[in-house]
Amino acid sequence: MQAKEIKTGIVVVYEGNPVLIEKISVHSPSARGAATLYKFRARNVVTRNKIDITMKGTDPIDEADFQRRNVQMMYTDPTHIFLMDQEDYQQFELPLEDVEEQLPYITEGLEGMRALIYNDGCVGLDVPTSVELTITQCDPGVKGNSATSRTKPATMETGLVVQVPEYIKDGEKLKIDTRTGEFLSRA
């Protein structure tokens, strides 16, 4: 595979290590004959270190021998999250610090969660791009303010605080974007 074919969320081998591509930016050349540069923000899936990679569009790179398997959260303890493979019921555990960014979006029975499996071990977790969460605490809207586009903070069932429009009330189910943490719509 060439560098110009890489998409976010793919796992490639860079300097002998599997890395998950998180962000891509393309820099066009300013001179004739210069190559377009692709800059990748990646994370080593084993050590969790961030890596910046710069490549020309035609540079070759290998895709890692990697699997994504549908999992369901079983439970968490103070240090780990425990997951179960939905196909063969194999159990995986991940330290909570490895899934710190995804944790505010994970609820019991969340559909579409996928474990990143490398060398028969779980090294990461993918959550869907949007999830449905219920509001547990939200200030009431002020009457007459519904015409403006003002927002207010709402605390979701997982502890995540999201800015929502003023017309949203306690107990409502909302769609939240897991990439940005922003309110999308009512569920």
Q: Which regions contain 5 or more consecutive residues with pLDDT less than 50?
A: none
Estimate what percentage of residues fall within beta strands: over 45%
Report the span from N to C terminus.
39 Å
Main CATH class of the largest domain:
Mainly Beta
Mean pLDDT: 85
Number of helical elements: 0
The strand order across the widest sheet is 4-3-2-1-5
Helix content bin = under 10%
- The tally of domains stands at 3
CATH topology of the largest domain: SH3 type barrels
List SSEs in N-to-C order.
Answer: EEEEEEEEEEEEEEE
Which architecture of the largest domain does the CATH hierarchy give at level 2?
Roll
Which shape, going by the Cα principal axes?
A: flat
Number of strands: 15
GO molecular function, one term: translation elongation factor activity
Family: Belongs to the elongation factor P family.
Protein name: Elongation factor P-like protein
InterPro entries: Elong-fact-P_C, NA-bd_OB-fold, Rib_uL2_dom2, Transl_elong_fac_P/YeiP, Transl_elong_KOW-like, Transl_elong_P/YeiP_cen, Transl_elong_P/YeiP_CS, Translation_prot_SH3-like_sf
